[in-house]
Amino acid sequence: MTSLALLSLLYFAVSVVTLTDSSLSSITTAAAPAASKCTLLNSFQPDFVIQGDYVIGGIFPIHFNLKMPDLNGTYRPPPINCNGHRIDPRAFRWAQTMRLAVEEINQNPVLLQNRTLGYKIFDSCGYPLTGQRAVLSMLNGVSEENSSMCTNASSLLAVIGAAGSAQSIVVSRILQTFRIPMISYTSSCACLSDRQKYPNFFRVVPSDDYQVKAIAQLLVHFNWTWVGLLRGDSDYGRFAAKGLLRELQDTKVCVAYQEIIPLLYTCQVGLRIMKVMRSSTAKVVLVFAVEGEMTPFLRDYMTQNITGIQWVVIEALVTASVFSGREYYPYLGGTIGFNIRKGHISRLGDFLQTVNPKRYPDNVLVRELWESLYGCSPFPSSVTQMSLCSGQESLLEQHSAYMNTSSPRVAYNVYKAVYAIAHSLHNLLLCQPGRGPFQNNSCAQSNNIHPWQLQHYLQEVNFQIAGEEVDFDAKGNSVPYYDIINWQRGTEGNIEFANVGLFDGTKSVGEELLIQEDRIMWAGHQSEVPVSVCSASCLPGSRKAVRRGEPICCFDCVPCDSGKISNQTNSVDCTICPEDFCSNNDRTACIAKKVEYLTFNSLGIALTVMSVVGACFTLAVCGVFFCHRHTAIVRVNNSELSFFILFALTLCFLCSLLFIGKPTYWSCMLRHTAFSITSSLCISCILGKTLVVLAAFTATRPGQNIMKWLGPKQQRTIISSCTLVQLVICTAWLIEAPPFPSRNTQYEHSKIILECSVGSRLAFWCVLGYIGLQACLCFVLAFLARKLPGNFNEAKFITFSMLIFSAVWLAFIPAYISSPGNYADAVESFAILASSFGLLFCLFVPKSYIILLKPEKNTKQHLMGKETK
């Protein structure tokens, strides 16, 4: 129980009624007469009353201002009274709807078996304390004599009310003591669904559990992720805000601030709240408060001239006629919210027309209604000082606060609540003895019905009214169904409540909300949906990075890394593209990676031309040597080895072609092994030629006969042995871990580089190392023979060729390691061509020059330096 309810009970225990323990016992059991012990200390007259066989109560907030008594404790406290001249025509219409429903039921020959309903209607002033006073007055009766509760079962079978959840909580707790059921027409607090605390509570309005769910879906629908929350200081506002925060936990919506409008409102508190609203970037404000709480706040809000706020309100406010005046539109226009389902009451308009001061001359409420609608008094009064009017003026359409019957909502709920009681009572009266729901299959006594007996039938009631099915679930709730209302400018500048959608809680998740966005007019008379976010949305191609110490709705936008994308707005993380795909420049989509390898493009064509030219040039030299094979320069330089070298060089030139084109399993194995074997063959031949040159020089010395160890057969053996070593290494390489085609996706995210993986790196470097070893040995031997006598010293050319060969391959190693994919193949191919051209030019171009252009020097004497001068 809240502190407000506790204070209320303590106050009314003194000022309203005094009950002894024995009298309370007599009330609850109705077993012994105790009328002499009931003492009425004060009276609270009903606003409308009619006698009947069965009496129900009605509590309506006909006034919305209180006149608080002076509670100084020095004298008997006077009762709390509603402040006159502040009547709410809309709530007055609700009370008249209850009277109409009872009248229809009493005229219905089918319902209640010729029995009648009576009613007592009280004004709660929209305040829990006065609502408590009203319900106690219902229970007591207007005098001690007709207070049947002192001697018999309660004549009050049920209560229609109250309007606000805070009032219903207090009223329900009082009625719970007497086990009297109540049906509320607007109390939507989710707390009232607790059957342990409120076992006698029913309602024909959906629970706030559904309303906060609808509001959460609305915020998500319009992408309002940064909102303010304004609530009343009551159980209703507290539970509604708590329910909304719980509902928003699984969404991307954050609450920027939460402010409370106190019960004892002051201008200073209002200005502080407005300062928070102004400073916040949240342009959407949720309101969980009732009319009485919002009225003083909005009065100050208008004086501060604050605009640009998009209000989202609850059903208690969304059709509040008190805010429909034209002065409210600049500040409240565009407000959107959920309202209870509207219905149709055919006789309501005609019935409201019958209420006038001439027909009810003694009813103060009717007089105040006339003063509120017409600004004149039907009776002379020294208090109001208003001009007189006849009291028979016609109620017109401009009195919409009272006469608006085109789409009744709360009034329709009142209408359904009265009929729910009537149908439950009718079912009770139809009970057949021996088949009843109570102990020993008994039925309730029609002339002495206990309220708890009626509650049993109320829990089970099911009927249709105007095509709509009415029933209650186990918690006393009705079917969740809302209309979406938008506050739009009327023809006269006032606010009109337009229906722009619906929320049907009976549908599956995600399909409950249906909005006609093109019909909505937003705050500031704008047609575009307002933006209310803490941080601007992150566009596709970026992700959200939450700021440290701030809510998740406040974030920075960080571009996705290369190879990652985000194709949605406000992505939390970037998605990694599949291996064969990369991100586009905007990082919004994965595109297929470009496949690259050394193909016949400009680079490949250049290498191909060089390879073919080199091979052709080598064959041309071979042809020249073959045609002049009997000349001195060819014979002196060992023609057989020369032809072997030219053959190996031709193969080396052609080997570079294997590096061009899409790598395959066979091409990868051939390109490295073929080059290594042909290169080794070429260097072996040059090594053999170098040894022959050295042997020939040594053989000219006395006592030296080395040439017999370097005859043609021995030369072939040396060449075969050196080449065989390379062949063994290559064979082991192919058997153990041969080269294979691979896809390099690591070097560059936007490309797939097709290349040949060497397989065993050890074998690869052994092959190159062996060729390098041969080249070094050949270089050393040629260097030693560089000063041999003669006009044509081939050792010099071998030395220079080996120097070029070694330089090319030493430069190749770092270039190969640092080059990716197709460039690595190009580097290796270029190294093969460069070294081959170096050998070809150094070894054979000088000889070809003499053969073709200087035939006079192509003699043995000239070559040996022994020609006659």
From TrEMBL:
Span-the-membrane segments of this chain are: 603-627, 639-661, 673-697, 718-735, 762-785, 797-817, 829-852
Arranged from A to Z, the UniProt key words for this protein are:
Cell membrane, G-protein coupled receptor, Glycoprotein, Membrane, Receptor, Signal, Transducer, Transmembrane, Transmembrane helix
Family stated for the protein in its record: Belongs to the G-protein coupled receptor 3 family.
Record-annotated G-protein coupled receptors family 3 profile domain positions = 603-867
**Range of residues in the leader sequence:** 1-18
Q: What name does the UniProt record give this protein?
A: Extracellular calcium-sensing receptor-like
An annotated Gene Ontology molecular function: G protein-coupled receptor activity
User: What subcellular compartments does it reside in?
Assistant: Cell membrane
